[in-house]
Amino acid sequence: RISRRLRNRSFSNDPLYARRPIMLVATRTLRLAGRVRPRGALSAWPVPGSPSPSGSPSGSPPGGARGLLSPAAHLRDSLVESVIRSDSAWVDAPTAVVEDPLHPNGFDFSVDLEAKPACSPLGVAGFADGVKRNGAAPDPFDLVAGEIDSLSDGIRKLLGSDHPVLELCARYFFDEGRDGGKKVRPTMVLLVSVAANQHAAAAASAEANEGKAGVPTAAAAAAGPGDTFALGPAHPAASALSAASASGASSAAGSVGAASVKDAALEGLSRAGTLAAQRRLAEITEMIHTASLFHDDVIDKADARRGSPSANRAHGDKLAILAGDFLLARASVALARLRNVEVVELLSTVIEHLVKGEVMQMRGGHLKDCSALEYYFHKNYYKTGSLMSNSCRAAAALGAHPAQVQDACFAYGKHIGLAFQLVDDVLDFEGSLQSLGKPALADLKAGLATAPVLLAAEEFPRLQTLIDRKFATPGDVDEALQLVKMSRGLQRTKDLAVAQADLAIEAVSQLAPSRARDALQHLAYKIVTRKN
Questions:
Q1: Residue environment code for 491-530, b if the CB has 16+ CB neighbours within 10 A, otherwise e
Q2: Distance CA 402, CA 199 (A)
Q3: Which of 31, 35, 66, 462 is least enclosed, having the fewest CB within 10 Å?
Q4: How is residue 384 annotated by DSSP?
Q5: Could you give the C-alpha distances from 221 to 25, 92, 185, 271, 401, in angstroms and in order?
Q6: Distance between CA 512 and CA 155 in Å, rounded?
């Protein structure tokens, strides 16, 4: 009856848009029926009433470990198995609320284009002033350089194949000499992981210092005494927290002893920096990004990437497409092995968004109720912002951090992604093959109108004619270039990028002060001031 009531609350109307609080209530209630079973054990243990391959009584844990499951836990098992096997609403229900600007209650990109971005103490200008007063901030790339250096080696191991041609193509951008990308995405994932983990440690330390020993810490807020389910089986603090609860139960101090050991375990976790799962997530993020480059270069008929011949130029279109597919397949396997269904859904939706963004760029015009600039922002979020934002949220989810921390990490990644693409579009006009690693004016030559062109068209309506015919007539590209340079389009695009970076810095400032958090602010500054 409890399960039926919760399902009716969780999945009424449209199951695709179930709200996170109700999902958490349902999950927590089912968990309260029996805390002992670890995550992932459901499929490994027999269903009550079914034959047992190990010879243990039906419904018992493997190895005949009797007594671990209470009657309530047996009832819970039967209930959950019944729901999973027979209830289509449960099967269709999302495990994560994935942000999407086009979904109900999605976000928008409204910006006052006539107003200069506010130079708040939390923005880019405030960060630059702070550097002048206090000295250089931690460099984001230096702070995680050791892990980034080993990133390509880890990816090459994940891409091992018994087919040498396929392996050669898939590893094309990860081999020595071509592994020269900026690595912004994995750097951001690693820094967000460290900053969020240190935020949890700071919260735990503050609670201990204030004498609030009985209050759950940030990372353990979802877990009750003796319950390591919320941390997941791979969480390095899980065994320590279990030991903490056991020692607390047997000590005279009781809950005080348990809380102090819990805090110590979390502090040790923060000193380690990142979890193994978070490091693997950084590799997966770079694999998904590189797969999108393989496909984009085929669609755009590109000749160069990262200062080298593009994969389609080196191996042909068919192998480049298959290599991109192979990268996505191996990334999906690695993602599944993280054993976190919320993270799997987040990153799977990212792949959907990459496809939607590319189709929006190729076809355009299907959003009839928004301006060309709004359409451009939607497309940019799908192509660039979604991978960054959802990877940051996934990093926080793997650390078992609360929703507030996950939301801050998501907002940081979203605004960094939008700022990154705006600067990319400026550099397409101001850069060169040497600085960009690809030819300049590539978007204009491909018939694409980016922010500098769209904003310049407000001053020079002649540009709209060129946009409508996708700069296809001889001389259109040169004329568009001259009109953009005569307009304020480039400067207004830079202002928009700074406004997005301001929002990113404001979002990450919700985390506790740390070198990793300062490095994330520095990364936002670097992105809007970069020249390549």
A1: ebbbbbbbbbbbbbbbbbbbbbebebbbbbbbbbbbbbee
A2: 11
A3: 66
A4: I
A5: 14, 28, 29, 20, 9
A6: 32
| E strands in 14-59 | none
Distance CA 47, CA 192 (A): 40
494-524 pLDDT per residue, tens: 999 999 999 999 999 999 999 999 999 999 9
> How does pLDDT run across 369-411, given as a tens digit for each residue?
788 888 999 999 999 999 999 999 999 999 999 999 999 999 9
List all residues 6 or more positions away from 235 whose beta carbon is below 8 Å from its beta carbon. 228, 275, 400
Six token digits for residue 117: 């971005």
- Measured CA to CA, the distance from residue 6 to residue 29 in angstroms comes to 9
What is the rounded CA–CA span in Å between residue 361 and residue 373?
A: 13
**For residue 27, is pLDDT > 80?**
no
pLDDT tens across 221-230, in order? 433 332 222 3
Q: Look at residues 384, 357, 376, 348 and name the one whose alpha carbon lies nearest to residue 299.
A: 357
Residue matched to tokens 């980034």: 148
pLDDT at 97: 74
- Shortest CA distance to 109 belongs to which of 456, 296, 382, 360? 382
Q: Comparing C-alpha atoms, which of 417, 397, 404 is closest to residue 335?
A: 397
DSSP states along 370-382: S-HHHHHHHHHII
Predicted confidence (pLDDT) at residue 121 exceeds the cutoff of 80:
no
The CA distance from 282 to 395, in Å, is 9
Q: By three-state DSSP, how is residue 298 classified? A: helix
Instruction: For residue 32, give every residue at least 6 positions away whose Cβ sits within 8 Å of its Cβ, in sequence order, or none.
Output: none
| pTM of the full structure | 0.73
DSSP-assigned beta bridge partners for residue 308? 305
C-beta of residue 88 within 8 angstroms of C-beta of residue 380: no
Residue 100 has φ and ψ, to the nearest 5°, of -150, 125
With pLDDT > 90 as the criterion, what percentage of the chain qualifies? 40
Task: Give the CA distances from residue 445 to residues 301, 457, 473, in Å, rounded to whole numbers and listed in that order.
Answer: 11, 17, 11
By the 10 Å C-beta count (0-12 exposed, 13-18 middle, 19+ buried), 141 is classed as middle
On average, the pLDDT of the chain sits at 75
Q: What confidence tens digit (pLDDT) does each residue in 28-56 have?
A: 444 444 433 444 443 333 434 444 444 44
